[in-house]
Write a structure and sequence with these properties.
The structure is a homodimer. By secondary structure, the first copy, chain A, is an alpha/beta fold. In chain A, about 45% of the residues lie in helices and about 15% in strands. The termini of chain A are far apart. Chain A binds a DNA duplex through α2 and α4.
Chain lengths: ~350, ~350
DNA sequence: CTGTTAGCGCGTTCAT
DNA sequence: ATGAACGCGCTAACAG
């Protein structure tokens, strides 16, 4: 493998001069620069970033740790991260935790060993251990999508509470009084915040706690299916469902279809997260949509700033707005029809 | 930052012994192993893989270079890669080329500098330059999803020709004679192979070349939309469309809807690539589906084998089968109805 | 089973 | 504007 020394010899300069040309650092005379560049081309020299990173303590690598890249919400987020990082000359390592804290720990350990410059973390749980470990280690982190209570950190997330509040208000406005919430794990902030928004809307509408129905599961389709079945078995049976993410929404729809119920005629169904237009043949669901690409973008920018200037500014929390898109699945006013 | 020397001093052993404990290489007495592990824990030592990779010439990192992770086909493929790599102790760097050869070149250059152990490449074009460059450099590569003509390499892909053949046969069997193909770029093998399968089916049915209609675009929704409009303007107007991927299919559907045409009554529509069940409210499209997760899995296994044992076996080409799933969008027999 | 020596390829630091 | 010397942290190679 050819090294900086081979290039230096061929160009008749010192190795450090080659280094300076490659990294565009310091001033080099046009003459020597050209000789170096010629030698690089001739030898097909490929700089070894392992060695340079070891010496300079910068890897120009970020990591994105998330639950499941298979979910379009996270795919878009990942794309936002990658585009932004790439523009700044960084590459990105992706890690899927599948919402497992053990996987998360394992990956974070590996990433620290690889000395990534910074980490974008969608925490598997509200447990602060992982984040504390990273902060203790000194690796810059930005938390994405979710909060971790009682810990100071840079965070970029959406307003889950407000999104759920709006969705629930919409259903209330359509005359529904029996509204059930199908959500993810209790100790994931998005899950908890969406429940909170749901409860606030019902409380404001004067519906007491015993008229509030919350089902906890996880963020996958199978769970949505099961929770919807539970909701159908409840007495009194709800007339509307709020699903805490896209996969839960689809799972719930399947359960309703199997039960022979029409949406929205027999049961209204709304949910969090929209699907990209390029994936949907028949847009149907009323949703609270989150700007996932922008979230990845903003998080990466924040992280890159931190790298430039560690501890230059206090921790920041960026909260992006959710937007409700009304389609068919929420139905039209029931009171007036009946 | 604490190093292997700090650990060695604290444990009263030589640095190399620490190295052996950490990497589980060679035999170490239980006594020393425990002392080392205690020292590691006490100091919170995190091995520097930059240094170890520099020395050992292995980074335990793979790269996946693909066109767009936002497409569920590639997302699943990526997940197959990540799961397999992770199980083997490798991390994965993802790169989106957006089908641009320039982006591809740029990324490959960076990856070589980072000394990734191997590369999984979905080539942007059939152009062999990138692959040749990697092979010349000596970095193991596995080509995924697409062929690169006239170059020897490990390849894992699906049988695009056969999938398109089957889809077209299905339409022929339903009585269609005016069948148009909406495909991607001419110089991407999946695009070309699907055209070939389409033509073979039509040829076998005795439909001459002038009765074959092929529209070339790219693999995105907007392109599908435009190609469908062109197909609608053709004389005679086709009665069925074959789309070369999922995004083209959706784009085509939108164009048909805008033109006031019903699918499948006024126009049959079939395509390549299914969407994951968790994303689809109403399964509608008749498709040729590819096992994308398995493709990522198989490709990664092949690559890992190569790393273990460079040049131990000849290049391999694994061709996975496509499967046709019949749903509504292809319609039922027209001849019998009319 | 354990240790010694040396060097992977580069950039920091200091000098001129 | 350019260079010399050194070390980043680790493991290959060899010795015992």
């Amino acid at each position: 493998m050819t090294t900086i020394y081979d290039v230096a010899r061929k160009a008749g300069v010192a190795p450090i001069t080659v280094s300076r040309v490659i990294n565009q650092t310091g001033y080099i005379s046009a003459d020597k620069r050209q000789r170096v560049e010629a030698a690089v081309a001739e030898l097909g020299y490929v700089p070894n970033r392992l060695a340079s990173s070891l010496r300079s303590r910068r890897t120009h690598t970020l990591a994105l740790v998330l639950s499941d890249i298979t979910n379009p919400f996270f795919t878009n987020l990942a794309r936002g991260v990658e585009d932004t990082a790439s523009d700044a000359g960084f590459t990105v390592i992706f890690c899927n935790t599948d919402e497992s804290e053990a996987e998360e720990q394992k990956y974070l350990g590996v990433l620290l060993q690889k000395r990534v410059d910074g980490i974008l973390l969608v925490p598997a749980r509200s447990n602060p251990d992982s984040l504390r470990m990273l902060q203790h280690n000194g690796t810059p982190v930005v938390v994405l999508d979710r909060r971790i209570p009682h810990v100071q950190a840079d965070v970029v997330r959406c307003d889950s509470e407000d999104g759920a509040y709006q969705l629930t208000r919409l259903l209330l406005g359509l005359g529904h009084r029996g509204i059930a919430m199908l959500t993810g794990p209790k100790n994931v902030s998005t899950s908890a915040d969406r429940v909170a928004g749901y409860r606030r809307a019902l409380n404001e509408a004067g519906l007491a706690k015993r008229q509030q129905m919350v089902f906890y599961g996880d963020f996958r389709q199978a769970s949505g299916y099961q929770m919807a079945q539970q909701a159908l078995a409840a007495q009194p049976r709800p007339t509307a469902l709020v699903a805490a993410n896209n996969f839960i929404t689809i799972g719930a729809l399947k359960a309703l279809q199997e039960a022979g119920l029409r949406v929205p005629e027999d049961m209204a169904l709304v949910g969090f997260d929209d699907l990209p237009p390029a994936m949907v043949a028949f847009p149907f669901f009323t949703v609270a949509t989150q700007p996932s690409y922008e979230m990845g973008q903003a998080g990466t920018r924040l992280l890159l700033e931190r790298l430039e200037n560690p501890a230059a500014r206090p921790f920041q929390e960026i909260i992006l707005p959710t937007e409700v898109i009304v389609r068919q699945s929420s139905g039209v006013a029931k009171l007036h029809l009946s």
